[in-house]
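Encode chain A's predicted structure.
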Amino acid sequence: MLVGVVISVGTLLFIFSFYNQRSLEPKDCAVVFGAAVWPGGSPSDALSDRTSAALDAYEEHQVGCLVFSGADSAYGKHEVEVMLDIAYKRGVDLADVELDYDGRNTKQTIQNLDSSRSYLFVSNDFHLARISLLARQAHLQNYAVYSSEYLLGRYSREPYFIFREMVALWYYAFSLR
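Encoded structure for chain A:
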C-alpha cells in the first residue's frame, strides 16, 4: 500500500509540475487539443479556454500558425469546427489555421504533426504532462507546453480529469505501442 501511495503522490507531483507553464519562446505553430462540445455546438469551458489561449499566443506573435485538432462530438459539430468558429470571431486570418480532423486523442494529434516544425502545445494544465510525455515518445525535438487560463473558473470535474491523467500517464509510459 505504501508503494501505491508513493507512486500516486509522485505522479501527482509530476502532473502539477506542468501547472502554469507559459513558454515565451516563439514557435512555428500552436496546437490546440480538442475537448468536449456541448449541445448546439457550443464549446465546453475546456475547449474555449484552450482555443482562447492559443489565439492569445497567435495575436502576441509567439506563433505564426494555429493547428486545431480534435474529433467528432456527440452533438453533431466537430471539435475542430467549434475552434474554427472561435478563431473566426476573433478575426484570425484563416489562412494561418490548419485543421486536423483526425485528432481523436492526444497521441493521435501528436502523431499527425510534421516533426520538422516547432510547436507550442496548448491545453489545460492537468493535461500538459501527458502531452509532453507523448511528444518525447514521438521524438519531437522542438516544442513547449502552454497552460490555458481558466476564464470561467476551475472545472467542477477537475479531480476526475487529474485522476484520468494519472492513469493515462502510466498507460502511455509503459505502452509498447
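Residues 34 and 70 are 4 Å apart (CA to CA).
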